Amino acid sequence: MKIHEIKTRVRYQETDQMGIVYYGNFFTYFEMGRTEYLRNLGLPYSELEKEQIYFPVTEAHCRFRSPAHYDDILIIQTWISELKHATVEFNHKVICEGDNKLIVEGFSRLACLNANRKPIPMPEKLKRLFQE
């Protein structure tokens, strides 16, 4: 299992009135992790779109373990947990760099679609990249 990590610093605008990261922002962090995971494989979303392959999120889940605050440095870990005929599932963990506290964990499932936004089997070259 290949785990890809990126870091981000919590910006003030990402916090709520209580001074903690607003819960919806964790899905943005998951997206950041997925995007960089694919880029690290040599497959940025822009290249997929040129080939008219699209990956919309069909399901996402986030379990909150501990709050994150303004100026915390977060480590976003992403890996592929499941690869099926026409879907791929990414798992995510967000950890606070200072104390290695688990902030959230979750997953996002994406479907493989063609230019007409119809489900298609995962192209072989993607399967190979995802399975390495």
Provide a descriptive summary of the structure in words.
With 132 residues, this protein is of the alpha+beta class. The protein has a single domain (4-131), classed as Thiol Ester Dehydrase, Chain A (Roll). It is built from 3 helices and 5 strands; from the N terminus they run βααββββα. The chain has helices at 25-40, 45-50, 124-131; strands spanning 4-9, 57-64, 73-83, 87-96, 102-111. Strands 1-3-4-5-2 form a 5-stranded antiparallel beta sheet. A hairpin with a 5-residue loop joins strand 4 and strand 5. 20% of the residues are buried. The model has no long low-confidence stretch (mean pLDDT 95).
Short overview:
This is Thioesterase superfamily protein. Keywords: Hydrolase. By secondary structure, this protein is of the alpha+beta class.
Structural class: alpha+beta
The CATH level-2 architecture is identified as Roll
Count of alpha and pi helical runs: 3
- β-strand percent reads 25-35%
CATH class: Alpha Beta
Low-confidence stretches: none
Categorize the overall geometry: elongated
